[in-house]
Design a protein that fits this description.
mainly beta, 4-stranded antiparallel beta sheet, 0% helix, globular
């Protein structure tokens, strides 16, 4: 199983981002929670949210008002769309697979925002 993040590179404050995670070796419609996590400079990992195998989503309450997660099953991808980006959103963004019980068994290599 491999996960690969891709992003827009440089962004301007107040823009809406679109980060995509392309999954190979497993279907995003199988039993797992496809998750976004970020790490800001000098800080620990921050859990953002997930889209489950059924398509149901859950986003951290602190980000829910301006963050959405979606998927493209035909391309086996899931995406993160944070809106109204601020300098506080500067981080490395990771996608990961959660098999349940907080078992994250596969991670992407991360994408830096801003790029």
């Amino acid at each position: 199983v491999q996960l690969q993040e891709s992003g827009p590179g440089l962004v301007n404050t107040s823009q809406t981002l679109s980060l995509t995670c392309t999954v190979s070796g497993a279907s995003i419609t199988t039993s797992a929670y496809w998750t976004w996590i970020r790490q800001s400079p000098g800080k620990g990992l921050e859990w953002i949210g997930y889209i489950g195998y059924s398509g149901a989503t859950y986003v951290s309450p602190s980000l829910k008002s301006r963050t959405s997660i979606s998927r493209d099953t035909s391309n086996n991808q899931f995406s993160l769309q944070p809106s109204s980006v601020t300098p506080e959103d500067t981080a490395v963004y990771y996608c990961a697979r959660n098999r349940g019980s907080d078992e994250y068994d596969y991670w992407g290599q991360g994408t830096q925002v801003p790029g």
